[in-house]
Every structure is written in structure tokens, then in C-alpha cells.
Amino acid sequence: MEWSDKKILVLGGDLRLLYLADVLKDVFHQVGTYALDGAEQLSGIERFDSLESAMQWADITVTPVPFTKDGTHLLTKDDTVIVLSDFSNQLRENTILFGGNIASSVLEAAQTKNVLCYDFMKMEEIAVENAITTAEGAIAEAITLSTQNMNQENCLVLGYGRCAKAIAKRLQGLDAKVTIGARKETARENAKAQGYQGISLEDIPELISTQQFIFNTIPAMVLDAEIIDKVNPDAVIIDIASAPGGTDFEACKKNGITAKLSLGIPGRYSPKTSARILLSGIVTSLEN
């Protein structure tokens, strides 16, 4: 069977997967959906009314990015609740599964059923494009929430992974004064080589009061209550680290500081672009 003849199911997710379901029709002969908010808008696609019927029909199942936010349920935007254990139980043998940061419990179940798993976030092209989209959206949110220009303003980026690098590069393009806070000395040196200031996380308390925009990408508590007490009241904090983030949001609320845990940015700011990126990852994986 050619892979384009396989039945592909889009399960759960946000606007990215809604757009993806639509463009999959150009590549696959049979496309289905379950628990996909807005799927009723799409023509030429089969909609299922139960998890069991959907997954027993599918040869390929495409799940959200991220796969889960709470470690217990599949990410859905409608009222459908899909428990990960139920999802694992419904996996059909010798099928294919795509998703972003697929839960380890599901990967274990998939292995016992000979399900071939592809993780979008382990695909280099998708991870890079996702970082770019996330960076653009994070900066857009910061600008929207602030009363200040970014031009010549002090911006602190915590972490120096893919997303942090993408944010810093775009901030630099806006003529902001960018500082990178990172644990590793090598990361700080690399940041300095790119024209940023580099500080250790231990130095954050000394610098934080001068920063107008703060972006956190570190999935650990780095902006605790003691540090938040030193933050400029007019500053904006955008935290894109995995829930619950690395910011004490209660302390921010108490101090009247604008702070937002901003997850799933690509699905909110550029879902159509993100859908094309995911489609490319699916096709490339199946062709290989």
C-alpha cells in the first residue's frame, strides 16, 4: 500500500491541526478527525464520534503539539476529554503515530503494539521552524501587553536553547538591548559572541530591576517571589516554558506586574504556517 492510500486521522489539537487536516486532503485519499475543534467546517473529511471508532479506522494517527499539557490528557480544544491511558489502550497494532513530545507512557504502549512513532519535536526542521514561530509570537504578546517600545529597551532572555536564541535574534533586530541569562558558561560566551550581554542565573537579582521585557524559556522556577520583588512595575514578563513555567505568577499579581504564561504560541499566531511545517514532517517521515 502506498502511504498516500493509508487512512490518516487527526486527533485533538488546536488550529494548527485544523489547518493540517485540511491540507492533508491534498496528499491522502482518506482523512478523518476526532475531538478536533472546528472540524465541522471542513469538507471531504470523515468525522468520528468516538475515540475507539476513530483509532480502529486509522492507519496513521496525528496528535497535537504538545501531545499533552498536564501529563494525563491529550491536548484538545473542544469539550472532549481523552485520557492518555484510554488513548494507549486504543492504539492499533502496526500503525503509525505522530505527535509532539509524545508522553512516555504512550511510547511504552506503542512499543508493545509495534506502533511506529514519530515525534515532531525531534525533527530538526520542525523544531527550528517551531522556535521561530514561537519567538515571533512571544514578542508580539510582549508588545501587546506593554506601553513601551522595544527599541533601545532592556530585554532579558532566560535560557539559551532554540526558542531563546530565536527570541534574542529578533529582539536584536528591533534594536533592543539584549541580555541572556544562562546556567552554562559556554552558553553565555556564545551569547556574547552574538552581540548580547551574558549573565549567570545567580546574577539575575542584580540586573532584573533594569529590564523592561523579560522572556523566560527555562522550565524551572527562576523568577521566584524574591526576584519578582525587584522587577520594574512597568515590566512585562512572557514565560514560554512548559507549564507551570518558571515564574511566580502569584508574586507578579501581588506586585501588579504584567506576566503571562504563554504556551502553544504557533497554534495561536501562525497556525496555517505551522500546519504546512507539520505536513512536510509527515511526508518526509513516511517517504523515508
How would you describe this protein?
This protein is 39% helix and 17% strand. It is of the alpha/beta class and 288 residues long. The chain folds into 2 domains: 3-122, 3-Layer(aba) Sandwich (Rossmann fold), CATH 3.40.50.720; 127-267, NAD(P)-binding Rossmann-like Domain (Rossmann fold, 3-Layer(aba) Sandwich). The strands form 2 sheets. It has a 6-stranded parallel beta sheet with strand order 3-2-1-4-5-6, sandwiched between helices. Helix 1 (15-24) links the parallel strand 1 (7-11) and strand 2. The two termini are 15 Å apart. The model has no long low-confidence stretch (mean pLDDT 95).
Summarize the structure.
The chain is α/β, with parallel strands linked by helices. It has two domains: 3-122, 3-Layer(aba) Sandwich (Rossmann fold); 127-267, NAD(P)-binding Rossmann-like Domain (Rossmann fold).
Topology record:
Layout: E1 7-11, H1 15-24, E2 30-34, E3 46-47, H2 51-57, E4 60-62, H3 84-90, E5 96-99, H4 104-112, E6 116-119, H5 124-145, E7 154-158, H6 162-173, E8 177-181, H7 185-193, E9 197-199, H8 204-207, E10 213-216, H9 225-228, E11 236-239, H10 249-255, E12 258-261, H11 265-269, H12 271-287
Parallel strand pairs: 1-2, 1-4, 2-3, 4-5, 5-6, 7-8, 7-10, 8-9, 10-11, 11-12
